[in-house]
Amino acid sequence: MKIFAGNSNQQLAENICQYLNLHLGKASVRRFADQEIFVEIQENVRGEDVFIVQSTSYPANDNLMELLIMIDAARRSSARRITAVLPYFGYARQDRKPGPRSPISAKLVANLITEAGADRVLTMDLHAGQIQGFFDIPTDNLFAMPTLARDIKERYEKGSMMVVSPDVGGVVRARALAKRLDALLAIVDKRRDRPGESEVMNIIGDVSGKDCLLIDDIVDSGGTLCNAADAMLANGANSVTAYITHGVLSGGAAARIGASKLRELVITDSIRATPEVQATHNIRVIETASLIGEAINRTSAEKSVSSLFD
Ligand code: R5P
To answer: Residues near ligand 1 with C-beta < 6 Å?
Structure first.
């Protein structure tokens, strides 16, 4: 097998290669003066099982285009099989029509990846599991939850923990984590009773005296988390920590988290942490190279990846 990476998360690709005891494939991914992307794969891939690691994170469109062009380059270089490895699949939040005359961009992006020439997709914690079905090629959706749960178990006492879903939409994910940790579950229910009135955060469950663990797939502006943390502390929670797979952290999110009452925000390295994120005192990044590396290893060896979900 051969592993290549675009510019979105070279460090993660290097770590995956280190796990697999491979060198990262040589490829040049650069820009012409007008910002057109030019890719050159600089080693033979004829007949190879090729994996291209690229998160479609900020700048989402450039990173997506790099991925598409890298897939095309590998296809035209006679790779035997091409797997697009997207630790973070951007555009996933556009998975339905929010109103009339609007697109379903997640489906469009899935089509683009397939049409470019990918034979398989490997991704992690899709915003909605059914996005898997947007691809007409085999798609494996890894779960970061076992990795997150291990980290939690090392840090929190069983009796003190309470898993919290920051919104009603995340209850299934939170319930799965609560079951895995044998912990109680609470839900933040955001409501605006009348238009123009401010949003009220109702907490379903008694969080008083508990170490609350917010679980979600994405933290973007950080607004959802910071508001939920405030509401839980106002209801007597002992502490609030957030475990989120994808640290999108746009705009001033890192500063917002830094100034918040969150004890800690734990994210994975699916998206490369910016210098601001790295410098934020209460943000910690945990690695997923071993999970993704093992999934790549098993895909290449035609072995099951489902045991990685345990
Ligand atoms: C929403 O459905 C997602 O799961 C996250 O809750 C959301 O993307 C977080 O966004 P923000 O950090 O901007 O509140």
So the answer is: 166-167, 169-170, 216-224
